[in-house]
Amino acid sequence: MDEHSAFYIPKQHETERLLMRIWQPGDGRLLHEAVEDSFPELHTWMDWAKVMPTLSETENVVREAAQKFVNRQEFNFIILRKSDRLVVGTVGVHHIRWDVPRFELGYWGRTRATGQGYITEAVRKLTRYLFDELGAERVEIRCDARNVRSAAVARRAGFLLEAVLRREARSNDESLRDTQIYAMLRENFAALSESPPLP
Ligand SMILES: CC(C)(COP(=O)(O)OP(=O)(O)OC[C@H]1O[C@@H](n2cnc3c(N)ncnc32)[C@H](O)[C@@H]1OP(=O)(O)O)[C@@H](O)C(=O)NCCC(=O)NCCS
Protein backbone atom coordinates (compact mmCIF):
# COMPACT_ATOMS: atom_id res chain seq x y z
CA MET A 1 0.00 0.00 0.00
CA ASP A 2 1.06 3.61 -0.53
CA GLU A 3 -0.44 7.04 0.04
CA HIS A 4 -3.05 6.41 -2.69
CA SER A 5 -4.72 3.81 -0.52
CA ALA A 6 -6.06 6.69 1.56
CA PHE A 7 -7.92 8.29 -1.42
CA TYR A 8 -11.67 8.33 -1.20
CA ILE A 9 -12.86 6.51 -4.30
CA PRO A 10 -16.59 5.99 -4.85
CA LYS A 11 -17.80 2.41 -5.14
CA GLN A 12 -20.56 3.31 -7.54
CA HIS A 13 -21.12 5.33 -10.71
CA GLU A 14 -24.33 6.03 -12.53
CA THR A 15 -25.11 6.88 -16.15
CA GLU A 16 -28.39 7.39 -17.96
CA ARG A 17 -29.04 3.64 -18.34
CA LEU A 18 -26.50 1.98 -16.07
CA LEU A 19 -25.35 1.47 -12.52
CA MET A 20 -21.73 0.48 -12.10
CA ARG A 21 -20.62 -0.79 -8.73
CA ILE A 22 -17.43 -2.29 -7.37
CA TRP A 23 -17.36 -6.11 -7.20
CA GLN A 24 -18.22 -7.20 -3.68
CA PRO A 25 -17.91 -10.60 -1.98
CA GLY A 26 -21.05 -12.51 -2.98
CA ASP A 27 -21.14 -11.12 -6.55
CA GLY A 28 -19.60 -14.36 -7.83
CA ARG A 29 -22.99 -15.86 -8.69
CA LEU A 30 -24.18 -12.84 -10.72
CA LEU A 31 -20.92 -12.75 -12.65
CA HIS A 32 -20.80 -16.52 -13.09
CA GLU A 33 -24.23 -16.48 -14.77
CA ALA A 34 -23.18 -13.66 -17.10
CA VAL A 35 -19.91 -15.44 -17.97
CA GLU A 36 -21.76 -18.73 -18.61
CA ASP A 37 -24.17 -16.93 -20.97
CA SER A 38 -21.34 -15.28 -22.86
CA PHE A 39 -18.67 -17.97 -22.73
CA PRO A 40 -18.08 -18.52 -26.49
CA GLU A 41 -17.33 -14.80 -27.05
CA LEU A 42 -15.28 -14.51 -23.86
CA HIS A 43 -13.29 -17.63 -24.76
CA THR A 44 -12.36 -16.07 -28.09
CA TRP A 45 -11.04 -12.81 -26.64
CA MET A 46 -10.27 -13.02 -22.91
CA ASP A 47 -7.19 -14.89 -21.68
CA TRP A 48 -8.88 -15.77 -18.37
CA ALA A 49 -11.66 -17.59 -20.28
CA LYS A 50 -9.60 -20.48 -21.60
CA VAL A 51 -11.98 -22.81 -19.76
CA MET A 52 -15.27 -21.91 -18.09
CA PRO A 53 -14.44 -20.93 -14.48
CA THR A 54 -16.41 -22.61 -11.70
CA LEU A 55 -18.69 -20.60 -9.45
CA SER A 56 -16.21 -20.84 -6.57
CA GLU A 57 -13.31 -19.76 -8.81
CA THR A 58 -15.34 -16.72 -9.90
CA GLU A 59 -16.22 -15.89 -6.31
CA ASN A 60 -12.51 -16.11 -5.40
CA VAL A 61 -11.62 -13.70 -8.21
CA VAL A 62 -14.33 -11.34 -6.97
CA ARG A 63 -12.96 -11.46 -3.41
CA GLU A 64 -9.42 -10.81 -4.61
CA ALA A 65 -10.72 -7.88 -6.67
CA ALA A 66 -12.53 -6.46 -3.63
CA GLN A 67 -9.22 -6.54 -1.75
CA LYS A 68 -7.42 -4.90 -4.69
CA PHE A 69 -9.98 -2.11 -4.58
CA VAL A 70 -9.27 -1.55 -0.89
CA ASN A 71 -5.54 -1.41 -1.74
CA ARG A 72 -6.19 0.91 -4.74
CA GLN A 73 -4.50 -1.58 -7.06
CA GLU A 74 -7.48 -2.30 -9.36
CA PHE A 75 -11.12 -1.22 -9.67
CA ASN A 76 -13.55 -3.74 -11.12
CA PHE A 77 -17.14 -2.72 -11.69
CA ILE A 78 -20.16 -4.88 -12.39
CA ILE A 79 -22.43 -3.09 -14.88
CA LEU A 80 -26.17 -3.36 -14.17
CA ARG A 81 -28.94 -2.10 -16.42
CA LYS A 82 -31.05 0.24 -14.31
CA SER A 83 -34.37 -0.78 -15.85
CA ASP A 84 -34.23 -4.46 -14.78
CA ARG A 85 -30.91 -4.90 -12.89
CA LEU A 86 -29.59 -7.29 -15.56
CA VAL A 87 -25.80 -7.68 -15.42
CA VAL A 88 -24.78 -6.39 -18.86
CA GLY A 89 -21.03 -6.70 -18.39
CA THR A 90 -18.03 -5.53 -16.44
CA VAL A 91 -15.48 -2.77 -16.77
CA GLY A 92 -12.22 -2.64 -14.86
CA VAL A 93 -9.35 -0.25 -14.23
CA HIS A 94 -6.08 -2.17 -14.22
CA HIS A 95 -2.30 -1.69 -14.37
CA ILE A 96 -2.50 1.52 -12.42
CA ARG A 97 0.59 3.68 -12.09
CA TRP A 98 -0.22 6.33 -9.55
CA ASP A 99 3.06 8.18 -10.10
CA VAL A 100 1.98 9.20 -13.66
CA PRO A 101 -1.06 8.69 -13.07
CA ARG A 102 -1.94 6.21 -15.83
CA PHE A 103 -4.69 3.61 -16.00
CA GLU A 104 -5.83 0.83 -18.32
CA LEU A 105 -9.47 -0.04 -18.97
CA GLY A 106 -10.73 -3.55 -19.71
CA TYR A 107 -14.29 -4.70 -20.36
CA TRP A 108 -16.63 -7.37 -21.58
CA GLY A 109 -20.34 -7.42 -22.30
CA ARG A 110 -22.97 -10.07 -21.69
CA THR A 111 -23.68 -11.42 -25.16
CA ARG A 112 -27.44 -10.92 -25.08
CA ALA A 113 -27.04 -7.30 -23.98
CA THR A 114 -24.42 -6.28 -26.56
CA GLY A 115 -25.19 -4.06 -29.54
CA GLN A 116 -26.88 -1.42 -27.37
CA GLY A 117 -23.99 0.85 -26.50
CA TYR A 118 -23.80 -0.14 -22.82
CA ILE A 119 -20.08 -0.82 -22.77
CA THR A 120 -19.25 2.44 -24.53
CA GLU A 121 -21.49 4.25 -22.03
CA ALA A 122 -19.65 2.64 -19.11
CA VAL A 123 -16.20 3.29 -20.62
CA ARG A 124 -17.02 6.96 -21.24
CA LYS A 125 -18.21 7.42 -17.68
CA LEU A 126 -15.14 5.80 -16.15
CA THR A 127 -12.78 7.65 -18.50
CA ARG A 128 -14.31 10.97 -17.42
CA TYR A 129 -13.92 9.97 -13.78
CA LEU A 130 -10.25 9.02 -14.25
CA PHE A 131 -9.38 12.36 -15.88
CA ASP A 132 -11.63 14.64 -13.82
CA GLU A 133 -11.28 13.09 -10.37
CA LEU A 134 -8.13 10.99 -10.33
CA GLY A 135 -5.95 13.35 -12.37
CA ALA A 136 -5.14 10.85 -15.12
CA GLU A 137 -2.48 11.86 -17.63
CA ARG A 138 -3.11 8.78 -19.75
CA VAL A 139 -5.77 6.08 -20.09
CA GLU A 140 -5.17 3.02 -22.26
CA ILE A 141 -7.28 0.29 -23.84
CA ARG A 142 -5.54 -2.79 -25.23
CA CYS A 143 -7.15 -5.35 -27.48
CA ASP A 144 -6.41 -8.14 -29.92
CA ALA A 145 -5.96 -6.54 -33.35
CA ARG A 146 -8.65 -8.95 -34.67
CA ASN A 147 -11.19 -7.86 -32.06
CA VAL A 148 -12.98 -5.24 -34.15
CA ARG A 149 -15.89 -4.85 -31.70
CA SER A 150 -13.56 -4.04 -28.84
CA ALA A 151 -11.56 -1.61 -30.97
CA ALA A 152 -14.85 0.03 -31.95
CA VAL A 153 -15.65 0.64 -28.26
CA ALA A 154 -12.25 2.35 -27.82
CA ARG A 155 -12.73 4.50 -30.90
CA ARG A 156 -16.34 5.42 -30.06
CA ALA A 157 -15.17 6.54 -26.62
CA GLY A 158 -12.59 8.81 -28.28
CA PHE A 159 -9.38 6.79 -27.84
CA LEU A 160 -6.74 6.92 -30.58
CA LEU A 161 -4.76 3.98 -31.93
CA GLU A 162 -1.21 4.55 -30.76
CA ALA A 163 0.68 1.31 -31.39
CA VAL A 164 0.47 -2.28 -32.46
CA LEU A 165 2.57 -4.81 -30.58
CA ARG A 166 3.13 -7.59 -33.09
CA ARG A 167 3.02 -11.23 -31.94
CA GLU A 168 2.73 -10.06 -28.39
CA ALA A 169 0.76 -12.99 -27.03
CA ARG A 170 -1.08 -16.19 -27.89
CA SER A 171 -4.85 -16.46 -27.90
CA ASN A 172 -6.75 -19.26 -26.20
CA ASP A 173 -6.74 -21.16 -29.53
CA GLU A 174 -2.90 -20.85 -29.54
CA SER A 175 -2.88 -18.48 -32.53
CA LEU A 176 -0.40 -15.60 -32.37
CA ARG A 177 -1.91 -12.32 -31.36
CA ASP A 178 -1.04 -8.74 -32.31
CA THR A 179 -2.14 -6.26 -29.64
CA GLN A 180 -3.47 -2.80 -30.44
CA ILE A 181 -2.94 -0.04 -27.90
CA TYR A 182 -5.51 2.75 -27.86
CA ALA A 183 -4.75 5.75 -25.68
CA MET A 184 -6.27 8.98 -24.49
CA LEU A 185 -4.16 11.74 -22.98
CA ARG A 186 -5.37 14.53 -20.71
CA GLU A 187 -5.41 17.05 -23.59
CA ASN A 188 -7.32 14.67 -25.91
CA PHE A 189 -9.93 14.29 -23.19
CA ALA A 190 -10.19 18.05 -22.66
CA ALA A 191 -10.71 18.59 -26.41
CA LEU A 192 -13.34 15.82 -26.47
CA SER A 193 -15.19 17.30 -23.50
CA GLU A 194 -15.54 20.61 -25.32
CA SER A 195 -16.96 19.07 -28.49
CA PRO A 196 -20.63 18.07 -28.86
CA PRO A 197 -21.56 14.65 -27.41
CA LEU A 198 -20.74 11.68 -29.62
CA PRO A 199 -23.68 9.72 -31.05
C1 LIG B 1 -16.13 -5.93 -27.07
C2 LIG B 1 -17.59 -5.87 -26.60
C3 LIG B 1 -17.64 -5.41 -25.15
C4 LIG B 1 -18.34 -4.88 -27.50
O1 LIG B 1 -19.71 -4.89 -27.16
P1 LIG B 1 -20.75 -3.95 -27.93
O2 LIG B 1 -22.09 -4.19 -27.38
O3 LIG B 1 -20.53 -4.09 -29.40
O4 LIG B 1 -20.24 -2.50 -27.52
P2 LIG B 1 -21.10 -1.24 -27.15
O5 LIG B 1 -21.72 -1.38 -25.84
O6 LIG B 1 -20.22 -0.08 -27.34
O7 LIG B 1 -22.26 -1.24 -28.24
C5 LIG B 1 -21.98 -0.80 -29.53
C6 LIG B 1 -23.04 -1.33 -30.47
O8 LIG B 1 -24.31 -0.92 -29.98
C7 LIG B 1 -24.95 -0.08 -30.97
N1 LIG B 1 -25.69 0.93 -30.21
C8 LIG B 1 -27.03 0.90 -30.00
N2 LIG B 1 -27.39 1.91 -29.22
C9 LIG B 1 -26.27 2.61 -28.93
C10 LIG B 1 -26.02 3.76 -28.16
N3 LIG B 1 -27.01 4.41 -27.51
N4 LIG B 1 -24.74 4.21 -28.04
C11 LIG B 1 -23.74 3.57 -28.68
N5 LIG B 1 -23.92 2.45 -29.42
C12 LIG B 1 -25.19 1.99 -29.56
C13 LIG B 1 -23.82 0.43 -31.83
O9 LIG B 1 -24.27 0.81 -33.10
C14 LIG B 1 -22.92 -0.79 -31.87
O10 LIG B 1 -23.50 -1.75 -32.71
P3 LIG B 1 -22.67 -2.42 -33.94
O11 LIG B 1 -21.61 -3.27 -33.32
O12 LIG B 1 -23.71 -3.21 -34.64
O13 LIG B 1 -22.09 -1.27 -34.69
C15 LIG B 1 -18.28 -7.25 -26.74
O14 LIG B 1 -18.27 -7.64 -28.08
C16 LIG B 1 -17.61 -8.33 -25.90
O15 LIG B 1 -17.84 -8.40 -24.70
N6 LIG B 1 -16.78 -9.17 -26.51
C17 LIG B 1 -16.13 -10.27 -25.82
C18 LIG B 1 -15.13 -9.79 -24.76
C19 LIG B 1 -14.16 -8.78 -25.33
O16 LIG B 1 -13.75 -8.87 -26.46
N7 LIG B 1 -13.77 -7.81 -24.49
C20 LIG B 1 -12.78 -6.82 -24.86
C21 LIG B 1 -11.42 -7.37 -24.72
S1 LIG B 1 -10.19 -6.18 -25.19
The residue ranges in which pLDDT falls below 50 over 5 or more consecutive positions are none
CATH superfamily: Gcn5-related N-acetyltransferase (GNAT)
* Number of beta-strand segments: 8
At CATH's second level, what is the architecture?
A: 3-Layer(aba) Sandwich
Could you say which small molecules are bound to this protein? coenzyme A
Number of helices: 6
What's the end-to-end separation, in Å? Answer: 40 Å
Question: What share of residues is helical?
Answer: 25-40%
User: Tell me, what's the shape?
Assistant: globular
Biggest beta-sheet profile: 8 strands, mixed
How many structural domains can be distinguished in the coordinates?
Answer: 1
Mean pLDDT: 95
What proportion strand?
25-35%
Q: Radius of gyration, Cα only, in angstroms? A: 16 Å
The strand order across the widest sheet is 1-2-3-4-5-6-8-7
CATH fold category name? Aminopeptidase
What does this structure look like?
The structure is a single chain. Helix content is 33%, strand content 31%. The protein has helices at 28-37, 39-45, 55-70, 118-132, 148-156, 186-194; strands at residues 12-14, 18-22, 75-81, 87-97, 102-109, 138-144, 160-170, 176-185. The radius of gyration is 16 Å and the shape is globular. The chain has an 8-stranded mixed β-sheet, sandwiched between helices. It has 199 residues and is α+β, with helices and mostly antiparallel strands. A hairpin with a 5-residue loop joins strand 7 and strand 8. The site of coenzyme A has 20 residues, from helix 2, strand 5, helix 4 and helix 5.
